[in-house]
Automatic annotation (TrEMBL):
<dbReference type="InterPro" id="IPR000600">
    <property type="entry name" value="ROK"/>
</dbReference>
<keyword id="KW-0547">Nucleotide-binding</keyword>
<dbReference type="InterPro" id="IPR020004">
    <property type="entry name" value="UDP-GlcNAc_Epase"/>
</dbReference>
<keyword id="KW-0479">Metal-binding</keyword>
<keyword id="KW-0418">Kinase</keyword>
<comment type="similarity">
    <text>In the C-terminal section; belongs to the ROK (NagC/XylR) family.</text>
</comment>
<dbReference type="GO" id="GO:0005829">
    <property type="term" value="C:cytosol"/>
</dbReference>
<dbReference type="GO" id="GO:0009384">
    <property type="term" value="F:N-acylmannosamine kinase activity"/>
</dbReference>
<keyword id="KW-0808">Transferase</keyword>
<keyword id="KW-0378">Hydrolase</keyword>
<dbReference type="GO" id="GO:0008761">
    <property type="term" value="F:UDP-N-acetylglucosamine 2-epimerase activity"/>
</dbReference>
<protein>
    <recommendedName>
        <fullName>Bifunctional UDP-N-acetylglucosamine 2-epimerase/N-acetylmannosamine kinase</fullName>
        <ecNumber>2.7.1.60</ecNumber>
        <ecNumber>3.2.1.183</ecNumber>
    </recommendedName>
</protein>
<dbReference type="InterPro" id="IPR003331">
    <property type="entry name" value="UDP_GlcNAc_Epimerase_2_dom"/>
</dbReference>
<feature type="binding site">
    <location>
        <position position="651"/>
    </location>
    <ligand>
        <name>Zn(2+)</name>
    </ligand>
</feature>
<feature type="domain" description="UDP-N-acetylglucosamine 2-epimerase">
    <location>
        <begin position="110"/>
        <end position="447"/>
    </location>
</feature>
<keyword id="KW-0862">Zinc</keyword>
<feature type="binding site">
    <location>
        <position position="653"/>
    </location>
    <ligand>
        <name>Zn(2+)</name>
    </ligand>
</feature>
């Protein structure tokens, strides 16, 4: 807890550590003689259910809750009932708020309930869903018509403004002690803003979650206005803590709707299915579709809805389609439904609203649910019903294995294929969002609220170091990285600036033994770090590029190439970090070349591309969706060892016919020596000194001067490289191929010719370019450091 937070309060209820600092809980448990093994926070796998309370925790918190309630009631005044205002805006939030409202109503000795209804509840086009609140026997204190029709972005803003105009009068009359606000709708933002400005305490339900579109921004904005938080998952709790919310005011309770969901499936359901879908429908043989507009990309979401309806028509199963919510774009979605005749199609039932109790039964026994509603990724998991989540509206939500994501739902065939994969399956039931005991926890949490505590909320900021940004020397420093290139011949170290400028470079021959090599790396790095001060560079870290297979997470070279002897299972990170007191990153030279292109070269801003290094060996790196691919055993992108001939020349890796055996500098040198030994290399215009070593450069020179045999070898090498590139295109389908290294310019035309001749027509349009980076190995090593320090995910 930050130093700026309020005095620590006692823990709240029987939830799983309930936002209480774990050190406090361990001390408490030790004092009571309770074992601590079950008391600490439990780490979760992604998608795993939260660790709900152990038996010891339940007993302890139950006793503590009674004591806490007694203390709070004494402070608040024994006869004072907590006046709770619950405001509901639409059918979705009412399904979460209703269980809490029933719980509050059942304890009149503690609570006084006022209900405000606003938003789409009061609109006929959306089912006049306020009636279900009346049917649940709740007295509605106030009805506020706050929706400005238009269903576009401007109408949403005007609706918020209208609610802000109307709410103050209502809240002045009610004078609630606390207002309960749910979720991430624009109506809820108006409620939270009004309550906060009128000094009314706010309890926010389902804060800390992550989804897509504008909802994230609204949800987090409400979090900052709210005084108390009820979250549904451990991840959401951690997000709230990371947002500097007071740990003691966060309750991990689970989703209130799960209290009803987990006891609902055994009820009579066939009559409900028949009522909404027809007498001839069987369980697991129909679809529930619920899709809303995406307010940040309305045009695309309408197109996606059209494709979804086309796919459902082709799939030819009975389908219940619910009308979208009131967000901008909903009117256009309804027009699409009517244009396709959905309301009159024999396979479809289009409805504005289904009561939540009945909706539970419908999704519990459906063959599949499709759309982009949070209900699909949250509540439906409780039944194991297959779900197809379309688009980005729920990106970031925790989901069970029953959810199949189609984030780029841009074709009817893609959606239809998802239906074929999911329809009729049965998955394990998921309890990610709750264990069925949320409401009791929330009620105890409400009873523990001390109205005498200061209303002004406090934020628990982490401790920060003294700000030195106004120091002129600090401002003038150039943020830089130390880049190390461990080559087969030379060892190079450079100071590289944030803009990719090589400020200073050092080169030494690479020693043959492990001890000498590591000693030289340390010596050169220390020298460069010292020199950085004189050239006004602030070193942020060290990046190392090396050949072979590397574990970048641990900074260990697992297996090196034959070019660098005695270099296996070597921890480079620890000794260099210890010596320089700087963070150290290590990666394969091919990956580093790809990183250099991504940050400084042709790959900047490109989502999917491949880099091929054509030098002493052949290597490369693959960038997919802006991120580098390492593979499960850090062996991805060993592009030089793609086999293009079963009986080709032997490669250094021990195989035959690899690209590297044809097109690497070593391979060309081998062929040049063979021609030279047969006296077939030198032609008119060429000369060699007696002691001069034959190299690939001599072969290239001979080919340029008309040596047909040398030219044939280069053509074969270019063809082999081209075939390898074709294999890459057919495997990862990049939009760009970058040839890097000293041989790149000699191969680029041959590679393009092979692609044009051998590749599938769908990938022939790929761009093949020669890198314009002077030193990709050093720039890539620097990128390892600079990408991290500029908060790029790596």
């Amino acid at each position: 807890m930050g130093t700026n937070g309020p005095p620590r309060r006692e823990p709240l209820t029987d939830g799983p550590h309930l936002g209480v600092g774990c050190g406090w809980l361990l001390r408490r448990c030790c004092h009571l003689g309770v074992g601590t093994a079950d008391c600490g926070p439990r780490r979760l796998r992604s998608g795993a259910a939260p660790a709900w309370p152990s038996f010891h925790e339940e007993v302890y918190f139950k006793n503590l809750s009674k004591q806490k309630q007694k203390e709070v009631m004494e402070k608040n005044g024994n006869n004072h009932r907590l006046r709770v205002c619950v405001a509901t805006c639409n059918r979705a939030d009412y399904s979460k708020l209703a269980p809490i409202m029933f719980g509050i109503k059942a304890e009149p000795q503690f609570f006084e309930l006022d209900v405000i209804v606003l938003g789409s509840h009061l609109i006929d086009d959306y089912g006049n869903t306020y009636r279900m609140i009346e049917q649940d026997d709740f007295d509605i204190h106030t009805r506020l018509h706050t929706i400005v029709r238009g269903e576009d972005e401007a109408a949403m803003v005007e609706s918020v403004g209208l609610a802000l105009v109307k709410l103050p009068d209502v809240l002045n009359r009610l004078k609630p002690d606390i207002m309960i606000v749910h979720g991430d709708r624009f109506d809820a933002l108006a409620l939270a803003t009004s309550a906060a400005l009128m000094n009314i305490r706010i309890l926010h339900i389902e804060g800390g979650e992550v989804s897509g579109t504008i909802d994230d921004s609204i949800r987090h904005a409400i979090t900052k206005l709210a005084h108390y938080h009820v979250c549904c998952t451990r991840s959401a709790e951690q997000h709230l803590i990371a947002m500097c919310e007071d740990h003691d005011r966060i309750l991990l309770a689970g989703c209130p709707s799960y209290d009803k969901l987990l006891s609902a499936k055994n009820k009579d359901y066939m009559s409900i299915i028949c009522m909404w879908l027809g007498e001839d429908v069987k369980t697991r043989d129909y679809i529930v579709a619920l899709q809303h507009p995406v307010t940040t990309d309305i045009k695309h979401s309408i197109k996606m809805f059209e494709l979804t309806l086309d796919a459902l028509i082709s799939f030819n199963k009975r389908t219940l389609v619910l009308f979208p919510n009131v967000d901008a774009g909903s009117k256009e979605m309804v027009r699409v439904m009517r244009k396709k005749g959905i309301e009159h199609h024999p396979n479809f039932r289009a409805v504005k609203h289904v009561p939540f109790d009945q909706f539970i039964q419908l999704v519990a026994h459906a063959g599949c649910m499709i759309g982009n509603s949070s209900c699909g990724v949250r509540e439906v998991g409780a039944f194991g019903t297959p779900v197809i989540n379309l688009g980005t509206r729920q990106t970031g939500r925790e989901t069970g294995e029953n959810v199949l994501h189609v984030r780029d739902a841009d074709t009817q065939d893609k959606i239809l294929h998802a239906l074929q994969l999911q329809f009729g399956k049965q998955y394990p039931c998921s309890k990610i969002y709750g264990d069925g005991n949320a409401v009791p926890r929330i009620l105890k949490f409400l009873k523990s609220i001390d109205l005498n505590e200061p209303l002004q909320k406090k934020f628990c900021f982490p401790p920060v170091k003294d700000n030195i940004s106004q120091d002129i020397d600090h401002i003038l420093e150039t943020q830089s990285a130390l880049a190390v290139d461990l080559g087969g011949t030379n060892l190079r170290v450079a100071i590289v600036s944030m803009k990719g400028e090589i400020v200073k470079k050092y080169t030494q021959l690479n020693p043959k033994t492990y001890e000498d090599r590591l000693e030289l790396i340390l010596k050169m790095c220390v020298e460069a770090a010292s020199e950085a001060v004189t050239v006004n560079c602030r070193i942020l870290g060290v990046g190392i590029s090396t050949g072979g297979r590397v574990n970048p997470r641990e900074g260990i070279v697992l297996h090196s190439t034959k070019l660098i002897q005695e270099w296996s299972s070597v921890d480079l990170r620890t000794p260099i970090s210890d010596a320089l007191h700087l963070p150290v990153w290590v990666d394969n030279d091919g990956n580093c070349a790809a990183l250099a292109e991504r940050k400084f070269g042709h790959g900047k801003g490109i989502e999917n591309f491949v880099t091929l290094i054509t030098g002493t060996g052949i290597g490369g790196g693959i960038v997919h969706q802006h991120e580098l691919i390492h593979g499960s055993s850090f062996c991805a992108a060993e592009l030089g060892h793609i086999v293009v001939s079963l009986d080709g020349p032997e490669c250094l890796c021990g195989s035959q016919g690899c690209i590297e055996a044809y097109a690497s500098g070593i391979a060309l040198q081998r062929e040049a020596k063979r021609l030279h030994d047969e006296d077939l290399l030198l032609v008119e215009g060429m000369s060699m000194k007696k002691e001069e070593v034959v190299s690939a450069a001599h072969l290239i020179q001979a080919a340029k001067l008309g040596n047909t045999k040398a030219d044939s070898i280069l053509r074969t090498a270019g063809t082999a490289l081209g075939l390898g590139v074709v294999n890459i295109l057919h495997t990862v389908n990049p939009s760009l191929v970058i040839l890097s290294g000293v041989l790149a310019s000699h191969y680029v035309n041959a590679v393009k010719e092979v692609i044009n001749r051998q590749a599938l027509s769908s990938v022939k349009t790929v761009d093949v370019v020669v890198s314009n980076l002077a030193d990709p190995a050093l720039l890539g090593a620097a990128s390892l450091v600079l990408d991290y320090t500029t908060r790029r995910i790596y």
